[in-house]
Amino acid sequence: NVTTIAFKTSTPPHPHDKIYIMDFTTLSDITPLPQDDGPISPVCSIAYTPTFVKSFDYLRALLKADERSERAFHLTTECLKLNPANYTVWHYRRRCLIALSGDGDGGGSGSSIDVDRIEKDLEWTDNLGGTNPKNYQLWYHRRALLEFRFKGKSVQEADEETLLSVARKELNYVDKILDDDSKNYHAWSHRQWIIRTLDNPHLWSTEIEYSHSKILSDPRNNSAWSQRWFALHEGSPIITANNNSSSKSILSLEKAREEANYALSGARVDPYNESPWRYLVGILMEQWRR
Asked: What pLDDT does 155 receive?
């Protein structure tokens, strides 16, 4: 009844997750619920492993009972290692986290997850994400957890520096992903969400510098050029036309000249690189439409 699963990732796993042991004896009072393939036997059934079948049969039973317990939470860990793209399991995991935090019923707004559990689960998803850097569900889970830090009840008790520290830690995680895949759309999108959510002047200015460093590393990285555009246009209104917050999407003429020169400098490095030229066209078209 005890199954040992070796958990291998491209990043060093958490000590407690290096070898994960799922003790199914803790579910002895639960009757597994088999997968329903319909009234007719499938022509070509999927060759699930015995561990996969057992884990998900128990998961379906717990879902049906709407149990949000510690054992249910641990079972989601097992199931996500077997299939990290299963949206239902991720959603159920979050509901278990909320219930185990003793705040809310796991399904409504206003519920929260305690900080310690958030940090541990972010670390766990970091380990799991080592082999799944483009997993939609995994990235959404990280965002959902951070929403509790940035928008939940814990925000009322946290000072600005604490929230910035949380943001920087997550941005460092994203940077690690981008070091392996500099055009990972999920990573760039997640990075934008963090900065836009906190809307802190320091984060905006730092992001301009960060995108510059990525452009220097790879001048053809169109994602880095797009990030620079994002940081400049949605950041501090000081650099926008008429210093009007309602005009955040348009750069001032002086700043537009600086960015045009920046794009031309990039083009001089490689005249056949489309990225700086597209950036330059965007700057010029924006000014022309004012």
From this structure: 57
